[in-house]
Amino acid sequence: MRSTNWLRCGVPHPCAHFAHGWVHRAKRDLLLLSVISLVAPAASFAQSVPATKPATTPSKQAPPAQPAINNNIIVLDPAHGGEDTGAHIGQLNEKDINMQLATRLRSLLQARTFDVKLLRDGDPTPAPTADQRAGAANQMHAAVCIVLHSSATGEGVHIYTSALKAASETGSSAIVRWDRAQTSYIQQSMRLSDKLSEALTRSRMATSNGRTFVAPLDALQCPAILIELGPIHGGNTLPSDTGYQQTVADAIAGTLLQWREDAKAVVKQ
Amino acid sequence: MIPRYQRVLFWLLLVLCGVMTVFLIYTHHRNQETADLSADDTPIAAPDVGAAENVTYVVARDADGTLTSAEQSIALPSVPAVRARALLEHLLADYALPTSQHPLPGGIAVEDVFLVPLPLTAPRQTGNTGGKPQLPDKTEDADELTHVTGELAVINLRSSWVTAHPSGVEAETLTVLSILGTLHASMPEITHVRFLVDGQTRDTLAGHVNLSRVYESADTTSTPQ
Q1: Which of A198, B93, B134, B145 is 20 to 30 A from A70, comparing alpha carbons?
Q2: Does residue A116 fall inside a structural domain?
């Protein structure tokens, strides 16, 4: 599994780094030699024996253990950034509208004692890639990951989950492929999508649910949904409207609060 | 007292004004109709000797994000790859009409469609004519296309059309699902689809939906929520 620590910026002193590197290389060489001396005879023996049916097929191997999640951590990914402006919506770029919504949502979630992590704070250039975003999100073991988009087409709020098949449909495997990490979380993601859709409908907001093929959804190891704000009122209210954003952010924050309470209740049982 | 010739001239000019008004309204309507017709980017259908047949389109609708089936009677070529291209051209040209519920850019969208039989196999080794092509084992890392049957459709889109495609998760998802659903409904032998743009792989359609992966052709119709 690839992982990237692009969010962390620890820079050691150069001399300390050199000394540490020499010691580290010496240790690594010793370890490598001892491993080779142990493995070489075993490998030569294995080559002399004809290949036989493996003891376990991949589909019968134990499924990968899901990392322990922290019910308080919510990861928000305001999509695009830097030179990637996204769609042009009215006078604004999509990347700016996504950031506005993320900031608004962060405040509401922090008021509900959530620990909110933004995968893009500000407008860094170059913006993190989809793989870097997924790597950073997967290290946080979040309760929920939300990817935020906005659009000038359609009507209302579009909620999407990954189009990958759930792990139960494909058979479990010990190996988790980077581009299929979401398979173990598809059912939770769809449940979350349904709950949010209900909440938005209660707020008299037009919604549509679906499944899509947008990065980094497939690589996320957490219940993950993509929310895209489209225009409302026949195109008269754009996603940049603060009232519209507030209504959607309220619905999302309420849903996540309920999601956390449900998770706590399951743990108690 | 107004002389007679002036009265005649007055009535003559009045009638002329009336005639000119009617002519003006007529030309205005005619110009409007011409403008509507020029907005229709549907490619002119080539002369076809084949009989018209009913094909099923999976039509997208932006307002509620749905995909529904619709039947149309059109003449299609019999060669599978050309047939797939013509089918997609008809589908995407309909989206360019002013009345479209999922507006897309006009013009020619599909450059070529290539059909590749599945499973993909390694080329035969020279000098070993009797041997079977070597297939990789079915392991976790093996390419899925080496172990499935059916046909892979490689759709080569024009960059001019892709560049003009509206940017948005819903708009791009609906376009891809509409293409997959239409191919599945009309040419079920196509099981997998891959997209190229001007012969090259491209990361996304218009900034969102992944265009570099292999898609499974499937029934993508949906119902309003």
Answers
A1: A198
A2: yes
Same domain, A76 and A47: no
Cα dihedral across residues A75, A201, B219, B52: positive or negative = negative
Are residues B140 and A213, on separate chains, in Cβ contact within 8 Å? Answer: no
> Cα A170 to the chain's mean position, in Å?
21
Residue A115 counted as domain residue? yes
Q: CATH number of the domain at A80, please.
A: 3.40.630.40
The reply to whether A263 touches chain B by the CB within 8 Å rule is: no
Residue B58 has pLDDT above 80, yes or no: yes
Q: Do B209 and A58 touch (CB under 8 A)?
A: no
Q: How many CB pairs under 8 A join A and B?
A: 80
Q: Please list every residue in chain A whose beta carbon sits closer than 8 Å to the beta carbon of residue B139.
A: 58
Residues A19 and A105 in one domain: no
Same domain, A34 and A122: no
> Is residue A140 included in any domain, yes or no?
yes
How far is the alpha carbon of A5 from chain B, nearest alpha carbon, in Å? 24
Q: What pTM does this model have?
A: 0.75
Whether residue A175 sits in one domain with residue A79: yes
- pLDDT by residue, tens only, chain A of 269 residues: 333 333 333 334 443 443 444 445 544 554 444 444 444 444 433 333 333 333 344 444 555 566 678 899 999 999 999 999 999 999 999 999 999 999 999 999 999 999 999 999 889 888 999 999 999 999 999 999 999 999 999 999 999 999 998 877 665 566 778 888 999 999 999 999 999 999 999 999 999 999 999 999 999 999 999 999 999 998 899 999 999 999 999 999 999 999 999 988 887 77
Provide, as residue numbers in chain A, all residues whose Cβ is less than 8 Å from the Cβ of B209: 212-214
- DSSP readout, B117-173? EES--PPPPTT-SSSPPPPPP--TTS-GGGS--EEEEEEEE-HHHHHTSPPSHHHHH
Range of A41's domain? Answer: 12-51
Q: Does A134 lie in the same domain as A38?
A: no
Q: Residue range B205-213: average pLDDT? A: 95
Any B CB within 8 A of A154 CB: yes
Instruction: Return the closest-CA partner of residue A109 out of A158, A146, A157.
Output: A146
CA separation for the pair B30, B35 (Å, rounded): 9
Decide if A158 contacts A208 (C-beta within 8 A): yes
Asked, for residue A3, whether it belongs to a domain, the answer is no
Residue A43 and residue A156 in one domain: no
Beta carbons of B207 and A87 less than 8 Å apart: yes
Structural domain count, chain A? 2
User: What is the model's pLDDT at position A40?
Assistant: 42
The answer for A 184-213 residues in CB contact with B (under 8 A) is: 197, 206-210, 212-213
A153 and chain B in contact, CB less than 8 A? yes
User: Which residue would you say has higher pLDDT here, B201 or B123?
Assistant: B201
Chain B residues in contact with A53 (beta carbon < 8 A): none
